[in-house]
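Renewal narrative, Specific Aim 1. Our central claim is that a sequence can be written position by position from structural information alone. The example that follows is taken directly from our test logs and has not been curated for this report. It begins with the structure tokens describing the chain, in the order in which they were read.
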């Protein structure tokens, strides 16, 4: 009988250990899959952002002001592009010989100290296609991506090139954000490598430090290099200290006609962190197994199997839920990307229509009858209005995709910038802008400036007979700042208080008050991205007050 009990006890312990080993393998596989999924999301996001920059350089290259404008006009337009897009450290144009003609800042490091044009310039002059390459950059900016495209006139004659430089540090926030979704976000490390395995960016590596990963010893890089569709996870040793790690990997594969760079994204976690929960469980159950009798151990085995099945069911349910969420996010991303690309694709034919109708107006004005002059004026005006509409649509689609990280922002300082930007309209209308003391909030500075400028511009546009009197105030209510922009303009019927925030909804004709009908819907989208809401209170002929809220957030120390 004792022998039988001992055998039962040993068998129960063996079965318990087997169940724990099986559960450990399941949890490790689950963690590796999570790391691989994070790497895939990071690679897809990098492809999308680089594709948008690839589209940007083509937009710059079709801007006729960069081809035909004077140097001062070109420099002004380039600075506008740099401020609007926010990703670039430098944008410039060259003549047909490769000499810098206009730029956002003096000089281009890639063309300095050379007896002739760089190789990429010769490439686009011969191919007349967009060229991309990664350069080492300076100690301040680190590696950069250079986008260049030819400046051709309508007859396809080569007049030079437009160049933009985007620091790879702009991509750090994207990879940081993907790593933060993991439970062990502080222990997660990510690495971005080029086709040859050279480190471009690393979470734990500042600019200027030599690459810390060798391609020859990185199993994960070799696996990812087998093809653009290769992704997964491996267990390997970190070269620097020899510690075992779990690495999720994925490779960028481009987007549409943009072939991409073939970069590899690695997301790493020390194996000790990945194994810690199950190791604790193994030790605990092992000690308990030594203290209990065989019947209790058998009961524990049965219970653990049941729990494992239930956990597997929960894991499967969670994976299905995550898949649904991922599909929804991808659908929303595709819709935003469609709006972005469609707007880009609309600009080129529209720009050609506007250019040639303006040319007709300039060349034949007064040479035809009055009806012809009037018809040409209608065409020019329509093209200009459509260009304004497309630019507003682009700004609307970029609120979520190209928003900056929130940082401490002085609303009072931004209001001063907005007033300076609207100086012409304020002086023409005789408007008076006053304000109470305004707080410092955590916000996207560029988007908050756009919000204030839109509300001030509307107050000036929809004025009555008297000069506009505009007052901005703020008060803290619980965990929110409530801002108000009050004017003495024509006012709005209360029945339209919600309709005015719907895109393309206008209460007046374009002849009465020009505009695209997107301004207030853009304001609403900006406020909602900041976790607030926006509304209006008004009566016809009694002015209007626009309110919006921003959450009170902790300031960085």
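The sequence written for that structure reads:
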């Amino acid at each position: 009988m004792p022998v039988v009990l001992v055998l039962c006890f040993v068998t129960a312990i063996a079965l318990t250990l087997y169940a724990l080993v099986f559960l450990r393998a399941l949890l490790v596989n689950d963690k590796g899959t999570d790391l691989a999924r994070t790497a895939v999301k990071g690679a897809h996001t990098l492809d999308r952002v680089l594709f948008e920059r690839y589209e940007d350089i083509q937009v710059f290259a079709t801007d006729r002001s960069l081809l035909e404008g004077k140097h001062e006009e070109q420099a002004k337009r380039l600075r506008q592009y740099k401020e609007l897009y926010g990703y670039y450290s430098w944008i410039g144009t060259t003549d047909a010989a490769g000499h810098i003609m206009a730029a956002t800042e003096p000089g281009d490091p890639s063309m300095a100290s050379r007896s002739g044009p760089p190789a990429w310039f010769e490439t686009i002059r011969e191919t007349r296609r967009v060229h991309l390459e990664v350069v080492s950059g300076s100690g301040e900016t680190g590696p950069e991506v250079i986008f260049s495209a030819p400046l051709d006139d309508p007859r396809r004659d080569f007049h030079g090139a437009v160049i933009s430089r985007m620091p790879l540090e702009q991509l750090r926030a994207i990879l940081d954000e993907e790593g933060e979704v993991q439970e062990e976000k502080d222990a997660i490390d990510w690495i971005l490598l080029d086709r040859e395995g050279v480190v471009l960016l690393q979470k734990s590596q500042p600019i200027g430090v030599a690459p810390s990963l060798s391609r020859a010893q990185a199993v994960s890089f070799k696996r990812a290099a087998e093809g653009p569709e290769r992704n997964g996870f491996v267990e390997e040793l970190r070269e620097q200290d020899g510690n075992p790690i779990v690495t999720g990997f994925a490779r960028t594969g481009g987007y549409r006609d943009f072939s991409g760079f073939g970069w590899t994204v690695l997301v790493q976690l020390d194996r000790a962190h990945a194994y810690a929960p199950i190791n604790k469980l193994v030790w605990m159950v092992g000690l308990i197994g030594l203290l209990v009798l065989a019947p209790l151990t058998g009961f524990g085995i049965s219970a653990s199997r049941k729990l494992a099945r239930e956990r597997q069911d929960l894991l499967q349910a969670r994976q299905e839920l995550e898949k649904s969420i991922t599909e929804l996010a991808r659908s929303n991303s595709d819709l935003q990307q469609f709006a972005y690309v469609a707007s880009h694709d609309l600009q080129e034919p529209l720009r050609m229509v506007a250019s040639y109708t303006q040319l007709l107006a300039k060349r034949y004005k007064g040479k035809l009858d009055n009806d012809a002059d009037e018809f040409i004026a209608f065409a020019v005006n329509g093209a200009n209005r459509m260009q304004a509409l497309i630019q507003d649509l682009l700004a609307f689609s970029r609120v979520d995709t190209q928003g900056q990280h929130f940082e401490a922002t002085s609303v009072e300082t931004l209001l001063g910038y907005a007033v300076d930007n609207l100086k012409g309209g304020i002086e023409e209308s005789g408007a008076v802008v006053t304000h109470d003391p305004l707080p410092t909030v955590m916000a996207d500075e560029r988007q908050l400036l756009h919000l204030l400028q839109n509300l001030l511009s509307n107050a000036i546009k929809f004025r009555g007979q008297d000069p506009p009197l505009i007052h901005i105030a703020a008060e803290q209510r619980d965990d929110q700042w409530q801002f108000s922009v009050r004017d003495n303009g024509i006012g709005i019927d209360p029945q339209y208080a919600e309709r005015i925030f719907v895109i393309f909804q206008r209460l007046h004709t374009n002849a009465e008050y020009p505009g695209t009908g997107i301004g207030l819907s853009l304001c609403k989208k900006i406020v909602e991205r900041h976790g607030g809401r926006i509304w209006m209170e008004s009566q016809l002929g009694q002015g209007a007050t626009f309110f919006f809220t921003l959450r009170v957030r902790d300031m960085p120390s």
